[in-house]
Amino acid sequence: MSRLLRSVAAALALAAVAAACLAQGSAGTADRGASPPVKSIRFGVLPLGGAVESRALWTPLLADMSQAMGLPVSAYSVASYEELDRAIQRDEIDMAFLSAKMALDAVMQRRMKVVAQIARRPGMPTHRAVLLTRKAGLPSTLEAVLAEPERWRLARGDSRSVTGFLIPQSQLFLPRKIAMETRFRGEIVGTHQATALAVANGDADVATNNTTDFERFREQFPVEAARLHIVWESEPPPGAQMVVRRSYPSEFQARLQAFLVGYGQGKGPRADAEREVLKTLRAAYGYATADDSALLPEAMLEYQLGKQNAMAAAWVNDAAREKRLQRLEKNYREQVEALRPAASAATR
């Protein structure tokens, strides 16, 4: 209840700051005869559980961002990856924390650029994709899932989800000639919370998830989580990225990046409160500076997955398969070319 009250209070504070900033902006326009280049920030919230829950998690940080930047910051919260993707394409999002897949798409469309990612330190738990089943009943082991996928109902993430789809498909299923979209008896597509609940409540038999979101699930749904266990863990996947609108002035982008990197890094009561916010966002050590080159691992993952799909698919002839592989190679080279300048600049 206390967390809910803090979120409500933060939301009210955010609205108050937004109103004050708009009033100040109007006065400033009269004095200077021109509007500021950036009037507000619309922050896209990646769905974790429900849209309301996801918005509540981000509200305290966005309130602090609004105060630091002197601009209204609003949360654009949606129920699915697809909705958020469409909002980005309609230019309704100015900033967002995105899965590596969605971030790569937005960067390659020249709409966004990477400015930060979750900071990692030696010894901290590694974020991984996982596969969940119920402890009681079947299938209770990975071997049972892989032996007869046609027997089981799958709950998985959206195709834009790295840990909910891309990594399990690439590292676990396709190497065994199992296509997640077609080999299972049925499927449910949803958030990590939704997939875990589906298995816990008997609506599905196996679910994709990840270690970070399953930890959150254990806290929120302890009874349901006790029915589940992890039967497979992946290698560490490409990480999610904080992106901002590429058309923002470079100095404004730098200010946003400085806010994120400095958030929760100071001393005193304010910094302590910021660190509590970061913990709820599963970013205990805050955010680290990043650029578009952070998406090179995701580009490689998608290239490898594309090749796996091409090799597993049925083709009219070998020439058709080879043409598909050549297109994949060309697309990957273009992505690397677009992302590498950021890597070169970072080393200078």
Automatic annotation (TrEMBL):
Domain of life of the organism encoding this protein: Bacteria
Coiled coil segments of this chain: none
GO-annotated cellular components: ATP-binding cassette (ABC) transporter complex
InterPro entries according to UniProt: PhnD (IPR005770)
SUPFAM superfamilies named in the record: Periplasmic binding protein-like II (SSF53850)
Record's keyword terms, sorted: Signal
Gene3D superfamilies per UniProt: Periplasmic binding protein-like II (3.40.190.10)
PROSITE patterns: PROKAR_LIPOPROTEIN (PS51257)
GO biological process: transmembrane transport
Signal sequence segment: 1-23
Family from the record: Belongs to the phosphate/phosphite/phosphonate binding protein family.
Name under which the protein is recorded: Putative phosphonate ABC transporter, periplasmic protein
Originating species: Variovorax paradoxus B4
